[in-house]
Design the sequence.
């Protein structure tokens, strides 16, 4: 199988991260260099935290955490020094343990194999969403960066889909934001910034 043209082997790659995301770029403080070719666009975590209403990044669960340095980090690669090294489809955390979950997984099995040598552990978007549903507390939020917007089932509700681009010549990705409905349609009263910006109440009350 031919190697992808992007990543650490690319002629122009410096292993310092993707170009700054269009929108609300801020200095990146949440991840280290990622010479393997993966990682969030520079400025993305801060922007996403603002949309989700995160006030303490250390409490965010990152599935397929890669080079992330903050939060609770789960990755299959021990060399990334995650908080927990395991398959993100079957984590050891109890049900409903987190208010905020984010994930930026490899976008295809070939990506996982060519970039990281982890093709046999490739998690499909639907599988990540399933585990996030189990781990998320009611009225919590899960953000997935991928080419695919996965189908969701109750109690998860799709709040918004954002197109994320790092500039001309780069593929656009979808950042899908989900919320977990609370039992009996009870609303926590804690709405993220997206609810204010787009006049959307929390998913359980729409």
Sequence:
């Amino acid at each position: 199988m031919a190697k992808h043209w992007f990543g650490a082997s690319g002629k122009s790659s410096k292993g310092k991260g993707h170009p700054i995301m269009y929108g609300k770029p801020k200095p990146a403080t949440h991840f280290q260099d990622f010479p393997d070719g993966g990682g969030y666009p520079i400025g993305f975590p801060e922007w996403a935290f603002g949309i989700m209403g995160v006030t303490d990044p250390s409490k965010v669960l990152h599935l397929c955490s890669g080079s992330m340095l903050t939060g609770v980090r789960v990755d299959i690669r021990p060399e990334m020094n995650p908080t927990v090294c395991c398959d993100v489809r079957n984590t050891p955390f109890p049900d409903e343990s987190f208010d905020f979950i984010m994930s930026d997984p490899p976008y295809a099995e070939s990506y996982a194999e060519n970039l990281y040598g982890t093709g046999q552990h490739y998690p499909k978007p639907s599988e990540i969403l399933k585990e996030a549903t189990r781990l998320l507390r009611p009225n919590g939020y899960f953000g997935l960066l991928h080419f695919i917007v996965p189908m969701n089932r109750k109690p998860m509700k799709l709040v918004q889909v954002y197109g994320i681009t790092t500039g001309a010549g780069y593929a656009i990705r979808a950042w899908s934001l989900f919320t977990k409905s609370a039992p009996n349609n009870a609303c926590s009263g804690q709405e993220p910034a997206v609810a204010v910006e787009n006049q959307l109440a929390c998913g359980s009350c729409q």
Q: What stands out?
A: The radius of gyration is 16 Å. The first strand starts at residue 61 and ends at 63.
